[in-house]
Each structure stands twice: as C-alpha cells, then as structure tokens.
Amino acid sequence: MMQGAFRVTFLGTSSGGGPSESRNCSSLVCDVVGDGTLWMVDCAEGTNRQFAFQDRSSTNLRSNKVTKMFITHMHADHIMGIIPFLRNILYPPPVAKPFPVSKPPAIEIYGPCGIRAFVRQVMKMTCTRTADFWTVHELLTPTDRKTPCLPHSDAADSTYELDVMHKTEVAGRDIMCSEDGFWKAFTVSQSLFGELFVDAGPISHRDPCLGYVIREAAGPMRKLVILGDTSDASAIIPLCVNPPPSLLVHEATDAHIPRHVDYNATRTPEAVLDKALSRGHSIPSMAGAFAKSIGAERLVLNHIGGRFPAPKYARDRRTAVMKEIEKQATQAWGSKTRAIAAYDFMQVIIPPVLPTPREADTESDNEESNEEERGSPMDAIQTAETVTMQLHHADPNEGFLYASKKRGRGDRDRRRRR
Ligand SMILES: [Zn+2]
Ligand SMILES: [Zn+2]
C-alpha cells in the first residue's frame, strides 16, 4: 500500500450497448481522500454486483465506503444503478427503534439538472426505506428547472409530487455555474496533502453532459480529469490545464479497426467517425488529440463499444483490437507513454509525486535529471511510480492482463471437464 496514492478503479467500462459478457456499463471509484472513503463517478445498472465480482487479491473496494457520487449525465447507462446502490449502502431502517427525524447524509450525489427528481421519484415510487440519509446537489445552468426540496410528507399523493422529498432525503444545494459556465470548487474536502477540490464543466454530447476535475490545491498538485460521454470536450479545457492532469479518462466508444487486425472488420474510417459523431461519441484519435491539447500525463480510454470486448488471453484477437485502439489514441496524443484502454477492475495508481525541478524543465532529458536527483527522497517515489505503471498498465508490447483472466480460465476448464 502506497501512502497517499490516488487510486482509480474502473468498475464498468462498456458503452451504453452493454452490459456485455466482459464489461459492465459506466462506473468508476476514486480513492483520493486517503481516509478509506471512495468517490464514485457514474453508477450504471449492476454496479453493486461489480463490488462482489472484484478479485480480492488485487482490490478490496467496499461499496459502503462511497461518500460522494458524481453523475456525468442522465443517460440510462450512467444512472440506472443509483437506486439499488443506495438501497445497498444505506441499510434497511431500524425495526424496533424510533425512526430518526434527520441525520447528516451518508452519501452526497452531485449531477446535472434532473438527477434530484430522478433519484427522489424512484426512491419514493419503489417505497424504498433506508436507515441512513442521502442528498442530491444539482449543478445547474441559468436555463435549468430547479427541483425544490419541500419537507417529506406521508400523504399518499406526495409520492407523485416532484417537489416533496423522500423520507430519508436531506435538502440538497442548487449549485449555479459561474458566468464562465463552470462549477469551480463546488465541493472541498480535506485529504492527506491539504484541500481537495472538485470542479465541473460542460462537454458536448447528445444531451447535457459534464466532466469532473478532482484536484489537489497543495502538495503533489495531482489532478484527475474524468469526462462523461463526449464528441467534443473543448469547452472544459480551461479547467484541465495549469497544472495539466495526472490522469485523463476520456471515452472512445467506437474505432476503425483495419482488416489486418480483425478480418471481420468491414467499416471504413469515415463511416466509423460519422457514426460516432452523430451519436455524440469519440474515436480513439479524438481522445488522444484532447489529451495532447491539455498535456495529460496519463490517458485512459473508457466507455468502450460492444464491438470491442475486453481481452481474456494475452494473444487473442480481442487483445490485438484493444492494442490497435490504444495505438490510435497514443499516436494522436503524441506521448511517449501509451494510452490504456480500460477494462473492468483495472486500477490506475497515481503516486504522490511532488513537483520537482525536472517537471518544470520539460526540455531536459529525463534520465539525465533523474541522475541529478539520485539520493533525494523523491527517488523512492519515482521508482514506485514506474512499478505501478508496469503492474497496472500491463506490458506495452505484449498486451495487458485482463482482471478476470483467472475466472476465464476456470470457465474453460469447467467446460472441458463436462
Ligand atoms: Zn454512455
Ligand atoms: Zn451518453
């Protein structure tokens, strides 16, 4: 366990066509505060079950450690797991004891206009009763409809009244964007290295969509940029630079695969691009170009289309296709680091590398400046970073390891025995 490392674990990496045999739909968790709590971005149907499916030898995520949830947009493949997730982590209400009138919320949900009405109404209409409380804060623009938080009522017809809260709902904030269209530092938390801010900004998709920026104000100054579905994220660029992000998570829903990589692939590059754009999505080179424009240090491709299942074995066709997708993004990114196509349960670890003179002097040869720093306490951390990138990045030349590899083998063995 590396003290103070940021850990981002992908719980679902499929586009809206999923879930599929190898991928659940969108959800990821960030371990950034350093006290064991987790922050979730999006919560697709089946997210609860992904916690049960994790390989405990590599991750040990607990759903009841999630204290904040950030929703990128209202599409079903990003929000349909919220209610079951709340049911799971907020526990059933006490039977014998009197029901508490109010408690601080155990989880805070942030998201675009509509998310409060959605969670509230489904909680009410499914007669969901919980022991712990919850709240929804909406990130609003001037043209959005506000959803008021009138006190809970046991009257039967209040179930259908949008403005009346659920029994264990706490009134949330209506957070208006500033004139530049951003929600800056709309939540602030204390982490190991000081204050941790979260910003949000709009990105282009078929319907209103947000990207989130989680950043340290001091210390290592790490920054995570996690975008929702998009065909053009340029509007959020001002939040993504100065400093550049340690990690960019960008969707790559579709991709053109040449025949020499997959002989079943018949679509032209133009047809693939047209389809992606018409649906508000990106191809790998668009993710790479965006990473280049903001100087991202790491790039993970997410929200992968159903045509591209996660690899099971190091040398199967699936692996070749995912490597091709990574190659296209890496070329557009123009980085020495390889872009990584996410798979379920993949974990990216970002060590607390403090700013060094080497980072300011980008022209200098990295190896040379590492020599100069030999003996400094930073060496251990730099080495740790290399190791984690190898572990979780897989081998750039040989393809990467799929988290369910062991399970996949087991299936095959069972079939053989039958
Ligand atoms: Zn989606
Ligand atoms: Zn979408």
UniProtKB/TrEMBL annotation:
GO CC terms in record: nucleus
SUPFAM superfamilies with a match to the protein in the record: Metallo-hydrolase/oxidoreductase
TM region positions: none
Composition-biased stretches (Basic residues): 404-418
Annotated region (Disordered), positions in chain: 354-418
UniProt GO MF annotations: 3'-tRNA processing endoribonuclease activity
Compositionally biased spans, kind Acidic residues: 362-371
Record-linked PANTHER family: ZINC PHOSPHODIESTERASE ELAC PROTEIN 1
Protein name listed in UniProt: Beta-lactamase superfamily domain containing protein
